[in-house]
Amino acid sequence: MPQLPIRQVGTQVRGAVLSRYEEVSKRVGLNPLPLLRQMGLSRSLLTTPAELFPVIKAVRLLEISAKESGCPTFGLLMAEARHLSDFGPISLLLTHQPSLRSALSTIMDYRHLLNESLAMFIEDAGKTTLIREEVVTGEAGIPRQATELALGALMLIFRAILGPAWSAKTIHFTHSAPSDIQVYRRVFNCPIQFDSQFNGLVCLTSDLDRPNTQANAVMAKYAQSFMDAMPRDGQRSIVSEVRKSIYLLLPMGRASVEQISQGMGMNVRTLQRRLDENQVRFSDLINDVRSELAQRYITNTQHSLSRVAEQLGYSNLSSFTRWFTLQFGFSPTQMRKNSSAWIAK
C-alpha cells in the first residue's frame, strides 16, 4: 500500500519492553532467534533490560511474531506473563506512590526508563476517567501487538496498586476484534470495545485517587533518589513530545498550539521558539501526524470515512477528501479499496 513518508523521530526503547518475549515465543511454538536476527536485534536484549534500541524494531518484531506463530494475541500474552519487577527499578517507586494517579504521573516522568514511545492522556469526566494510551512509532502501520502489550502492562500496574481483582469499566482498541477474544477477557476481565475511537480504558475516577495502602513515603523517597541518580540518555526531544501530544489530542479536536503548549507547561512563544531551533514548524507536525493517522484509520473499514474525517479534525467529508487527495494523490475511497486488496493478499 502506498504511504506518504513520515518524518522519523528516532525513538529508542529499552530491552525491558521485550520482557517475556522468549518465554511466550516458545509457548506458541515459535523460535525467536531467527526473528530477532531478521530485525537486526541481538538475543542479549532479552537479558539486558537497560539496553537501548529503536522502538520501530520492537513493534515490527511483535507483529511478525504474531503472524509467524499464528497467535493474534502475542503481545497480550507477553503482558499477561509479566511481573511488576520486569519494569526494573521503577517498580519500587510505582508501588509506593500514594495513589494510582500519582503512579501514572510517575510513569510519564520516568518514561525514559520504560518506553519513550508511549503517549498518555488522562481526562476526568465526572465519576469516570478516560485514559488514552498510544504507541507512537512514526510509521503508518497499526502497532496492534505493541498497543495490546502496553495496555496489558498498564493493567499490571493498576492491579499492583489497587489489588489483583481490580478491573476497568471498559477497555478500548481502535483495531478490530480477532475471531477469539478469550485471552482479552482473561487479561482484562471487563467489557472490551474494539473499533473504538481510541486505545485506552475508562475507569472510576475514585479508583485513581483511592489511597494506596501499600505506600511508604520513606521508601518512595529512597526509590526516587535512586531513579534520579540514573543517567539519562540524552535530552528528551521537543519534536517527539509535541508529536505525541498531537497524536493524542488531534482525534479529540484539541490539537491547537495553545492547548499543546499549555499541556507541556510552556507558553506558545516558547514552544514555537524551541521548534524553530529544531527547524520544524508546528503545522508540519500536525500534517505529519494527520497523514500517519489517516493511513491507520483508512485500513479499518469499520470506521466510516465521515468518522475518519472527524477524527482528523475536519468538520465535513469534502474538506477531508481534498486534503487527502492532495497528500496522497488519490481519494480516501481509492486508498481504502487498495488497502483492502493489499491486506487480502
Task: Give an overview of the whole structure.
With 345 residues, the chain is of the alpha+beta class. It folds into two domains: 12-229, Alpha-Beta Complex (H-NOX domain), CATH 3.90.1520; 238-344, Arc Repressor Mutant, subunit A, CATH 1.10.10. 51% of the residues lie in helices and 9% in strands. The protein is built from 17 helices and seven strands. The chain has a five-stranded mixed β-sheet with strand order 3-4-7-5-6. Strand 5, helix 8 (182-188) and strand 6 form a beta-alpha-beta unit. It is globular, with a radius of gyration of 20 Å. The model is unreliable at 1-9 and 341-345 (pLDDT under 50).
Structure keywords:
single chain; 345 residues; alpha+beta; H-NOX domain; Arc Repressor Mutant, subunit A; 2 domains; 5-stranded mixed beta sheet; two-stranded antiparallel sheet; 51% helix
What secondary-structure arrangement, pairings included, does this model have?
Blueprint: E1 12-14, H1 21-27, H2 32-38, E2 52-54, H3 55-69, H4 74-81, H5 90-95, H6 100-109, E3 118-125, E4 128-135, H7 144-162, E5 170-172, H8 182-188, E6 192-193, E7 200-204, H9 205-209, H10 217-229, H11 238-249, H12 257-263, H13 268-277, H14 282-298, H15 305-311, H16 317-328, H17 332-344
Parallel strand pairs: 5-6
Antiparallel strand pairs: 1-2, 3-4, 4-7, 5-7
Helix pairs in contact: 1-4, 4-7, 11-14, 15-16
